[in-house]
User: What shape does this take?
Amino acid sequence: MSTDSALRVVVLAGGLSHERDVSVRSGRRISEALRNRGVDVDERDMDIDLLPSLIADPPDCIFPMFHGAAGEDGAIRDVLDLLKLPYVGSNPEACRLTYDKPLAKTIVARNGIFTPEMVVLPHEAFRELGAGAVLDAVEKAFGFPLVIKPSKGGSALGVSIVHTAAELPTAMVSCFSYADCAVIERYIAGTEVAVSVIDLGDGPIALPAVEIVPDGEFYDYNARYTAGLTEFFAPARISDEVSQRVADAALTVHTILGLTGFSRSDFIIDGEGVPQFIEANVAPGMTETSLLPQAIEAAGLDLSEVCLALVNDAIEAHSAQA
Amino acid sequence: MAPQSGESPLGNRLDPHLARYAKRTHGMTASEIRSLFAVASRPEVVSLAGGMPNIAALSMETVTSTVANMLATRGQVALQYGSGNGDQRLREQICEMVGLQGIAPHPDDVIVTVGSQMALDLITRIFCDPGDVIIAEAPSYVGALGVFRAYQVDVEHVAMDEHGLNPEALRETLKTLAAQGKTPKFVYTIPTFHNPAGLSQPQDRRMEILQICQSAGVLIIEDDPYGLLGFDGHIPQAIRSHDSDGVIYLGSFSKTFAAGIRVGWAVAPHGVREKLTLAAESAVLCPPAFSQLTISTYLDTQPWMDQIKIFREVYRERRDATLEALTQHMPEGTTWTHPTGGFYVWVTLPEGMDGTAMLPRAVTARVAYVPGTAFYINGDGRQSIRLSYSFPEPDRIREGVRRLGGVINEELKLMHTFGTLGAARPSVSSQGSTPGPDVV
Assistant: This one.
């Protein structure tokens, strides 16, 4: 791995999504990690000055850490491709597939990975068919509890676990405040784990699964970003066999969605020890309470070293492509 | 599922100090709603959220020359520790200022603090033990609720009507508390250009509230940061002007000069002021001499009342833009207050709507406000939102309100689809609904 002090990296963080705050913190941590390895890092937000500055003074590599729309939906990476600038992480197409949760679940399911049953319904479906009738049908098919979530977005924003029909309208409105389309999933009880995959140039490897045990009912925004509200186990308290199974599943997800560099896939290990895929992330959080940094530590790796390796690999891949 | 081999790994909560925190920190958590305010600072977003004074209306040349003058004449004092109750000359000047509101204190009755927020903190510290009860308007200033929460004080909200704190509701609350064997430590009120409600108590209402509190033997904390900012130039007489023993009056230079200077004050009865001074010394030793002397020099050398007139005009123009845009863009069923001074309009959404749940949609539409829940200790206020017009340009305000109208209409469609909501809402702490002080 190079520790060339001349290496210049622009970390992109902030943006206008609902996850701006998290993105800023993730970006800061990545920047700090790279600076620890002697990299010259510039942190930039998504604004009207960004592209002119990248064009006028192109860095060696870009590390996109925007979360949410425009960051994880492939848009910024499409623009970076147009500018022929190297960047860490997945290409726009992989981002688009992954960011759309129902689409990603469908692709993953077709490749043999289990995922909770779902229906995907825009607001119009409820309005035109009648919310009561649609929700009754969902209830009859899946039963309670149900998981309601926006079809796009992260940090559990707009996500609810619903136990009774009376809670459904509130959960739906909360969900539709974040996105135009809702995913209603059958609730799977089990052990919640996140498996991060990194590729430092020798092919993707799965890091140890991190088990998530929130104090509250589920791993919501507060539980994610308030140290102390969630207990993490890294590696997860699962058998070696299940551990291997979920690692394989994460690698499959990473590969079939076309992800590169790094990703994080979230699973529930159900009562039979089967990993049920929930979602994947192309720009997983890197804050002090985030899961990928914990997985890196559990693997005996160093965050700075991993970040630098990702940068070097992105530069090499870009050069090879050129 | 137990691991097949080896010992169970230890869990990690990512904060080694977790067991050491005081109980009062338990509610201090990250919040989905608070995170949305991070977007509000972006220029694309019209922020009607934070109550930022419009510093652009203050001449920087004036400030520069004032600071230079102050350093040239009193620099040695400005850069040194000072007295715990504040600079003597500034306290005299504060007495002259509050004279406009009918208060005639001795300079010794004045304690200078780091913003009036510190005065509120000190007052709560010296009067309230955990579990004590205080009374506040419903809704009330979010910064005050934060202080009360930090001292583990129980807040009893009392309803307001179009003239502010409702005396009948106050009587009723005092009666109920008495029946429970509880005596509130004080009534906290903002009688003039209320934050967040934008309402003012008429003089007869102030007298009635004072009489109720006098009869019940309850102290009044009168918070008055906006008192000089009436758009018609009228300066209401403070409650304190009628009772110097039963009312502690809080004032601030944040809105009449500059918030960044962080200077406020309390006018208090003699016994209270002694304790406030000791409490202030233990908190900060002394208020910042540099800031105090800058303001003192400003008040001595500049036509500060003219500057207040400029501020009034700036805020009046923005208030007008807000009310006009609300009339134009709000859907049927929406109502709002018509402030005659200060920074805020309190908007009540159509029946069944939820301003907290609507905020993500508003942020997506590039407009921000503070949900009504921020101004209640108990999660009430969902149907309301606070709009602050103090900072944006009038055209931006119009655009922001236009966007807000679209957002409310979209939410109404959702409400019609899913029926009237509200029953099964999770509770939201006011802390979690609040932006930081720098959200513009």
